[in-house]
C-alpha cells in the first residue's frame, strides 16, 4: 500500500519587533554569542555532582535511605538525580542583564516505600557542587505522588521474575512440549517476558500483563501464546499473585487450571517449530541475495571533513555559522536545548523532547492494554553507545553521558551523544540562468549542509533516533526516527483486525506513535503573540479583461498582520494516516503562557497512573489565559500511524518512519541569512557566446 506524505503549515508564531531591527547577514555590531561559562548553567550534572548529591542524601538520617539495588521493595531509596534547571526569569536575568548566576541545584526523586503510607517525593538539592540542604518540590494543585505511580526498577523486575518462576512450575510440561522452552528451573532453553503498561485499569492499581517469549536473539518477536496477569501492588512480593492467564485464545483463572486442561487433553495447544541455530528471522545475520549482484561487502559513502570542523563545541555550548545554543541530555526525557540564538539574537529559550507515546490495538489482553508512555521507562537514561560509522559518521564528535537512574551511583554511557556536519545531498539553493540559446548568464549554488545533534533512546524493543538539525539559512529541524523491534503478539485469526501477520505465529500490532515537544520561543524578547494564517480562494473580476473572472489565493481572515511582523513559522513534517487518533492535547499545536509549574507536559509517573496524572497537560489549556504579548510556549505534537508489515522483520527501517517539525524564519531577516556563507559556487562566462573561459568563485583551494 502507498502512504500519503503530508506536509502542511499549521501556524505562525509572531512578534512585532518595533524596537529591535532585524540582524543583517554580515559582520557588524549587534547581539553577541554568550560565553561558554554562561551556557554551563544548563549543563547536566557531572559525575562528581551526582555523587555529591547521592552522598549528601544518603547521609541524612531522617530520610533513612537504603541502596537501590537488592534488598526489598519496602524501603526508602534514591531513584533519580538530574539537573534542576534554573527558573527562567533568573536565567534570563543572568544571561541578558548581568544578574547573579543562578544557584546550581539537583532534582532528586526518592521512593519512600519503607513507611506505613508509601509515597514518592521529589527534592531540590543544593547548592552544587557541595550540597548542604534540600527541600520538597511542590506540584501544581498541591498534588502528591502515589507510590503505585513509580516507574519500574531493576529490583521489581527481579522480584517479578521470581514470582513467575514459582507460578510457571505447574506449566513446565505444557511449555516444554509446545515451545521447547520453559520458565521454571531453566538454565538454557529459557523463556523470558515483556511487561505491558498501564498497569491496571484504575488509579492505585499495579497489575501487569506479562507476555512470555522464547529467550533467543530478537526475543520480542517470539511470543509463545501465553500472557500472564500479575498483581504486584503490595510492597511485599509474598503477597503478589497471578490473577489470570491467556493462552492461545482462552482465559484461565490460575496456572493450575491451565495445566489441568493440558493434562486432560482438552486444551488447544499452540505447538511452535524449533528455532534454527543460524539465520533466525529475528536476527541481523545476512540472508538472501540482491538480484543485481552489486557489492555490499565494501564500504559505502562516508562523511568526511577535508579541511577540519566547521562547528565549535565548548562544554555544552554548540556554535555553527550563525547558530549558538546550550544543550543537555535529561535522564528523565532526553535532549533539551536552551538559549537558542542566531547571529546572537535569541530565538527560543528552550526546545526539548517531552514525551513519546505509542497506542496499540490488539486481540490479546496484553495488546489491547498497551499504551506506552516512554518517559515512564527512563527514555532519557537509555542512551546507549553510538556505533561509529553507523549511528553517526566516524568524523563526528562523540560525548559521554552520565545518569543516576535506578542505580547506586553515576553510570557512564560512552559516546551517548554525537555532533556532526551532514551533507544533505541537495543544494541549499541554486539557479542556472539560461540565455535560452544554449548558453547561460551565470550559475550559482550553495551546498546543502546541516549540523546535527543526535542521541538515541532504546526503550526496550523500540529505538528512537533523536535529531536537532541546524541549517545555515536560520531553519531548525527537530526530527525523530523510529526503528528497532516492533511490539508484537501471538498470532490469532481474530487479531487480523488489529494488525498484520508478519510471521507464522506473529502479529504485528497496529499502533500510533505520538511525540511531544516543548518550544519556548522568545523572539525579540518574551512578549510574543500567536496567530494562524489561512489561505482561501476568492473569485474576482479580471481588471484587464472585463467580463472574465478568475480565482486567486489570498490570506483569509486572521491572517498575518501588515507591517511585516518578524516571526518563525512552526511547520510539522511526517506521515499521517487518515483517521489518526487525536493528539494528547487534541491539537497538533497548542500555545500556552509560560509558567514555572508547567515546565513539562508529562512526567515519569504518567505511564503507571494515566488516570490521575501528576502533570495534566489538558490543565494547561483550560485556564483561558490571554496569549497576546505574553511569554508563550508552543507545544508541538507529531506522529504517524504504523501498520506493521513483513518488511518490519527483523527491525522497522528508518525510511518512511521519521517525523518532526521545522522552525523557519518568516520575515525575520532582511534576506536569506545563509548569504553570509563564504562557500557558494558562482560560475560566470567570460567570453559568451563561445563559453571557453569561465570565472569560478570561489576557486577550490
TrEMBL record:
First-level EC class: oxidoreductase
Protein name in the entry: Amine oxidase
Disordered as annotated region, ranges: 19-40, 544-583
Cofactor, how bound (note): Contains 1 topaquinone per subunit.
Short name of one Pfam family: Cu_amine_oxidN3
EC number: 1.4.3.-
GO molecular function: copper ion binding; diamine oxidase activity; primary methylamine oxidase activity; quinone binding
A Gene Ontology term for the protein's cellular component: plasma membrane
Metal-binding listed as a keyword: yes
Gene symbol of the encoding locus: Aoc1
GO biological process: amine metabolic process; response to antibiotic
Limits of the Copper amine oxidase N2-terminal domain: 49-133
Signal peptide per UniProt: 1-18
Amino acid at each position: 500500500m502507498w502512504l500519503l506524505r503530508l506536509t502542511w503549515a499549521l501556524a505562525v508564531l509572531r512578534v512585532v519587533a518595533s524596537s529591535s531591527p532585524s540582524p543583517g547577514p554580515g559582520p557588524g555590531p549587534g547581539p553577541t554569542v554568550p560565553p561558554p561559562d554562561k551556557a554551563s548553567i544548563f549543563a547536566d550534572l557531572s559525575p562528581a555532582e551526582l555523587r555529591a548529591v547521592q552522598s549528601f542524601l544518603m547521609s541524612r538520617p531522617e530520610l533513612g535511605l537504603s541502596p537501590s539495588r537488592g534488598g526489598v521493595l519496602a524501603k526508602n531509596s534514591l531513584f533519580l538525580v538530574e539537573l534542576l534547571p534554573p527558573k527562567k526569569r533568573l536565567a534570563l536575568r543572568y544571561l541578558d542583564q548581568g544578574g547573579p548566576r543562578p544557584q546550581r541545584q539537583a532534582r532528586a526523586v526518592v521512593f519512600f516505600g519503607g513507611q506505613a503510607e508509601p509515597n514518592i517525593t521529589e527534592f531540590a538539592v543544593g547548592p552544587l557542587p557541595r550540597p548542604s540542604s534540600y527541600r520538597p518540590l511542590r506540584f501544581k494543585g498541591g498534588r502528591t505522588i502515589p507510590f503505585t505511580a513509580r516507574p519500574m526498577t531493576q529490583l521489581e523486575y527481579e522480584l517479578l521474575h521470581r514470582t513467575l518462576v514459582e507460578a510457571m512450575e505447574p506449566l513446565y510440561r505444557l511449555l516444554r512440549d509446545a515451545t521447547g522452552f520453559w520458565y521454571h528451573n531453566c538454565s538454557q532453553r529459557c523463556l523470558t517476558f515483556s511487561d505491558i503498561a498501564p498497569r491496571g485499569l484504575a488509579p492505585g492499581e499495579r497489575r501487569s500483563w506479562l507476555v512470555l517469549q522464547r529467550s533467543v536473539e530478537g526475543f520480542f518477536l517470539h511470543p509463545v501464546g501465553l500472557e500472564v496477569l500479575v498483581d504486584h501492588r503490595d510492597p511485599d512480593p509474598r503477597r503478589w499473585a497471578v490473577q489470570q492467564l491467556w493462552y492461545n485464545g482462552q482465559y484461565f483463572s490460575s496456572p493450575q487450571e491451565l495445566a489441568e486442561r493440558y493434562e486432560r487433553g482438552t486444551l488447544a495447544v499452540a505447538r511452535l517449530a524449533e528455532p534454527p541455530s543460524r539465520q533466525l528471522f529475528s536476527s541481523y545475520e545476512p540472508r538472501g541475495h540482491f538480484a543485481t549482484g552489486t557489492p555490499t561487502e565494501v564500504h559505502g559513502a562516508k562523511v568526511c571533513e577535508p579541511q577540519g570542523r566547521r562547528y565549535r563545541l565548548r562544554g555544552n555550548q554548540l556554535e555553527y555559522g550563525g547558530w549558538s545554543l546550550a544543550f543537555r541530555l535529561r535522564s528523565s526525557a532526553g535532549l533539551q536545548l536552551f538559549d537558542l540564538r542566531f547571529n546572537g539574537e535569541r530565538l527560543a529559550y528552550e526546545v526539548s523532547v517531552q514525551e513519546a507515546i505509542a497506542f496499540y490495538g490488539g486481540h490479546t489482553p496484553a495488546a489491547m492494554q498497551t499504551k506506552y508512555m516512554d518517559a515512564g521507562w527512563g527514555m532519557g537514561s537509555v542512551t546507549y553507545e553510538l556505533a561509529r560509522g553507523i549511528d553517526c559518521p566516524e568524523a563526528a564528535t562523540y560525548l559521554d553521558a552520565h545518569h543516576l537512574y535506578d542505580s547506586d551511583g553515576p553510570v557512564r554511557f560512552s559516546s551517548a551523544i554525537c555532533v556532526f556536519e551532514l551533507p544533505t545531498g541537495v543544494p541549499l539553493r541554486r539557479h542556472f540562468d539560461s540565455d535560452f540559446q544554449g548558453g547561460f548568464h551565470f550559475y550559482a549554488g550553495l551546498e546543502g549542509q546541516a549540523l546535527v545533534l543526535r542521541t538515541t533512546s532504546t526503550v526496550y524493543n523500540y529505538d528512537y533516533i533523536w535529531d536537532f538539525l541546524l541549517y545555515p539559512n536560520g531553519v531548525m529541524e527537530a526530527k525523530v526516527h523510529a526503528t528497532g523491534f516492533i511490539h508484537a503478539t501471538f498470532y490469532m485469526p481474530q487479531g487480523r483486525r488489529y494488525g498484520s501477520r508478519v510471521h507464522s505465529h506473529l502479529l504485528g500490532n497496529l499502533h500510533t506513535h505520538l511525540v511531544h515537544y516543548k518550544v519556548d520561543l522568545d523572539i525579540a524578547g518574551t512578549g510574543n503573540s500567536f496567530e494562524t494564517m489561512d489561505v482561501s480562494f476568492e473569485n474576482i473580476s479580471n481588471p484587464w479583461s472585463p467580463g472574465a473572472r478568475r480565482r486567486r489565493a489570498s490570506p483569509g481572515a486572521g491572517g498575518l498582520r501588515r507591517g511585516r511582523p518578524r516571526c518563525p513559522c512552526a511547520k510539522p513534517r511526517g506521515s499521517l494516516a487518515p483517521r489518526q487518533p487525536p493528539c494528547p492535547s487534541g491539537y497538533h499545536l497548542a500555545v500556552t503562557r509560560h509558567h514555572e509549574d508547567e515546565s513539562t507536559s508529562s512526567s515519569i509517573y504518567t505511564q503507571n497512573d494515566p488516570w490521575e496524572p501528576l502533570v495534566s497537560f489538558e490543565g494547561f489549556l483550560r485556564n483561558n489565559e490571554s496569549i497576546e504579548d505574553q511569554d508563550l510556549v508552543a507545544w508541538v505534537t507529531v506522529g504517524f500511524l504504523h501498520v506493521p508489515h513483513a518488511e518490519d522483520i527483523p527491525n522497522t527501517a528508518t525510511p518512511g518512519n521519521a517525523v518532526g517539525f521545522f522552525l523557519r524564519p518568516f520575515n525575520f531577516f532582511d534576506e536569506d541569512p545563509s548569504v553570509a556563507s563564504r562557500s557558494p559556487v558562482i560560475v560566470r562566462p567570460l567570453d559568451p557566446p563561445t563559453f571557453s573561459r569561465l570565472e569560478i568563485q570561489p576557486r577550490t583551494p
